[in-house]
Structures are given as C-alpha cells and as structure tokens.
C-alpha cells in the first residue's frame, strides 16, 4: 500500500491497525471471515471505476465488455455452485437481497411471516426497526422455549391465522440445521411465496453440509461475506419464472450502478467455493464448532439447543449471572472477539443481552484445528469463570497472541 501510505497516511494507518487486529486477535464472530488475497485484489481493482447499470449485454453505459465478463462468470458459477435456475449477483448486501425479493414478490402493506429477531431471525425478516417491519405487516414465529428449536406448530398456526404473502426461513443466530420442507408445505397450504435467507449457512449449503433450499424455495438470498468467504455483498436467486421480476427489483427499482469490483470479488469467491478444498474447509468449520461446543458444555456452560450442527453456537449466560455485554468485553480484553447476542425470551435489552454468539469460520480459515479449538474453549471458560479478572485476561491475551503467531494471515500486506 505504498501509494496510500504516501498520499494519505492517516487512512493508511487506520487500515494497518485493522490488519494488525485481524492478524493478532482471535475472530470468533460468527458472521465474519477472512477473504483470500485473490478476492482482496479483485475488490481493490479498477472495476470500482465502472458504471454498469443494467445487465450483461443490456447496459445503460458503453465500455462494459470487461465488467460483463466478470458478471457473466459470477452468474454462471453461482448457478453451478448452488444448482440454481436464476441468480442476480448485484445486491450490495444481504439486506438488499431480501429487499429485492420483497419488491419482486409482494406489495407494501402485505403480511410477511419471518423468524423473530430476538429468537435468532434477522432485522430484514420483519423487525419493526427495519424497512421490512415498516412497509409490511410483520408477524413472527420463534423457537420452542424448552428445546430452543424452531416451533413449526407455531409457524403453521400463524400462517393459517394471518395468511402471509411471503414466509421466510433462515436466521442470524440459530445453531441447528433448518428443515425447509415443512416451510414449503405451509407456504403451499396458505398460498405464500417461500423465501429462504441462507446468509449464515450459504457456505455449508455450497459444500453440501446443510440441506439445500433450492429444491423447495421460490427465492433464496444470501450475503456473500460470511461462511461463503467472499467480499461484503449479497446475491438473490429465484426460479426461472420469477427471474424478470427479481432483476427489475434489483435494478432499477432498488439500486443504481452495481459495484463491479465487488461482483468481480464474488466471481472469485464462487470459483473458490467450487474447489474441493472448500468442502474440506467447511467440514473443518463444523468440526471445530462441535469441539468448542463440547469444551464449553464440559465447563458447565449452557448452550442453546444443547449444541450445534453448524458454524455457530450460542451460550445462555443466565445461569452464570453474566450479561452478554460483560462477557463480550471480558473476552475482548484477552484478544478474543465474539458478539453479545439476545437469547430467546431474554429479559435484557439488545445492548446488554444474556448471551454470546460464537462462530468458527474465520478461525478455521487461518488454520486453527480441533486441538486449538479445545484450547480456545478452555480459555473462554477461564475468562468467564474469573469474570474478566485482569490477571487472567492478561495472561490469556499473551497465549492467544502466541497461538495466532503460528497461524499467520495477510502477512504479505503487513507493513
Ligand atoms: N440475513 C441474515 C440471516 C443475516 O444474518 C444477515 C447479516 O447478518 C443479513 C441477512 C444481512 O446481511 P448484510 O449485513 O449484508 O445486509
């Protein structure tokens, strides 16, 4: 980054600070990952300069030959990776992918049925503070208080009562496999469109480690920067019958010019997802998460649903009398980043919460395996058991640094 260092030292310094944080701290935030150097290059490329409103071969600007190529690559690869009929690779984010589907499939004022934000759903599934709760009548289902699993009886009875125009399956903090077939049956029964938001699990779906939503869903959305390990962004898929409506919803209804440098990054991401090593990576993510879950359970910590099937787990800290906010802070003092997370039926506000969410995608990308994850679980236990005692967090911070020095990442872009 020699240009930036000379021309704008302040911005350069901030970026280097982030490089150092990502290198020297343990990222266990379930929605984060490290992109490959190839993706960094694509996203940092001159394609950021190009206006390309429209679609390949049908642009509103001249000079789109090269950007057409990357968008066509991304489209073809996305269809291959997921076995999809149609994809739009232009949404700027996962939230915008969801907005595009609503714009394509329903009208303002229609009823939507999605998972409650406080039970693990996403803002865009109908939360009142999001456009989705603002412009649509939102009804939400949750999890069974005893098992922590999605309450399908509730989904069915709410669907029968409210007759939603769209039903959304998918979550931001749900540690178990989601069975999409019953959602499809309920959608058919009440005449609803069925959307699966696979943002968190799209890497697992690509690797064949989570059942695919494509055989049953009308629309599928994802963000691209979580388990799929691509640049920040989104993709929206549909059945061929809805292809035109979806493309019109993305552009011109919702967005202007696509971020072609990010579309290039998505093309690279999808090529990486086709490589057999990606399946191995995702399998290691899941194995690591299981080891972490077991280590925490052995230490007396209560995991929602009793464990995990995927890349994340949720600890309910109420038995320990700890808040998610305090736990997040104690762990960050030792260089371990997780995020506070509400637990179902939480009595604490979202700024405090009674739980934390932990995920293994980023740590697995840098090479940590089961032995290391067990060690990490023991550190988390020690820090939380001590309630963030300074001598404990300081001792473990040094151990975390030593461990991570054996698993370098982005070494070549360090100053
Ligand atoms: N959908 C789900 C299930 C998510 O977890 C998220 C992000 O956390 C999104 C959508 C939104 O993605 P973005 O942050 O890219 O808008």
UniProtKB/TrEMBL annotation:
Enzyme class, first EC level, given as a word: transferase
The keyword Cytoplasm belongs to this UniProt entry's keyword annotation: yes
UniProt signal peptide: none
Site entry (Plays an important role in substrate specificity), positions: 225
Catalytic activity entry: (6R)-5,10-methylene-5,6,7,8-tetrahydrofolate + glycine + H2O = (6S)-5,6,7,8-tetrahydrofolate + L-serine
Subunit annotation: Homodimer.
Full protein name: Serine hydroxymethyltransferase
């Amino acid at each position: 980054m020699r240009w930036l260092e000379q021309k704008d030292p302040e911005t350069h310094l901030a970026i280097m600070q982030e490089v150092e944080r990502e290198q020297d701290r343990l990222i266990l935030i379930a929605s984060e990952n490290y992109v490959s150097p190839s993706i960094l290059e694509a996203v940092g490329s001159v394609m950021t300069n190009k206006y390309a409103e429209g679609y390949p071969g049908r642009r509103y600007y001249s000079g789109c030959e090269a950007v057409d190529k990357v968008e066509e690559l991304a489209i073809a690869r996305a269809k291959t990776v997921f076995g999809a009929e149609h994809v739009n690779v232009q949404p700027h984010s996962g939230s915008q992918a969801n907005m595009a589907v609503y714009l394509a499939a329903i009208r303002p004022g229609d009823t939507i049925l999605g998972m409650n934000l406080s039970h693990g759903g996403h803002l865009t599934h109908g939360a009142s503070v999001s456009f989705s709760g603002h412009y649509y009548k939102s009804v939400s289902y949750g999890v069974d208080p005893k098992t922590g699993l999605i309450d399908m009886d509730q989904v069915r009875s709410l669907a029968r009562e409210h007759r939603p125009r769209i039903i959304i399956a998918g979550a931001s903090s749900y540690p178990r496999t989601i069975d999409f077939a019953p959602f499809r049956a309920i959608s058919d029964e009440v005449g609803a469109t069925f959307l699966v938001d696979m943002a968190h699990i799209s890497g697992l779906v690509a690797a064949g480690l989570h059942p695919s939503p494509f055989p049953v869903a009308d629309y599928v959305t994802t963000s691209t920067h979580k388990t799929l390990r691509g640049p920040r962004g989104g993709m929206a898929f549909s059945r061929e019958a809805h292809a035109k409506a979806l493309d019109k919803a993305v552009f011109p209804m919702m967005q202007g010019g696509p971020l072609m440098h990010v579309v290039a990054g998505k093309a690279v991401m999808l090529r990486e997802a086709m490589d057999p090593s990606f399946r191995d990576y995702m399998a290691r993510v899941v194995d690591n998460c299981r080891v972490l879950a077991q280590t925490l359970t052995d230490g007396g910590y209560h995991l929602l649903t009793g464990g995990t099937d995927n890349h994340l787990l949720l600890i309910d800290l109420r038995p320990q009398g700890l808040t998610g906010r305090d736990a997040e802070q104690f762990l960050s003092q030792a260089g371990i980043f997780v995020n506070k997370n509400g637990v179902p039926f939480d009595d604490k506000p979202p700024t405090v919460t009674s739980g934390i969410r932990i995920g293994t995608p980023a740590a697995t990308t840098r090479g940590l395996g089961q032995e290391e994850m067990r060690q990490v679980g023991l550190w988390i236990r020690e820090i939380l058991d001590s309630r963030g005692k300074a001598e404990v967090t300081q001792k473990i911070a040094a151990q975390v640094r030593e461990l991570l020095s054996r698993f370098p990442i982005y070494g070549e872009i360090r100053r």
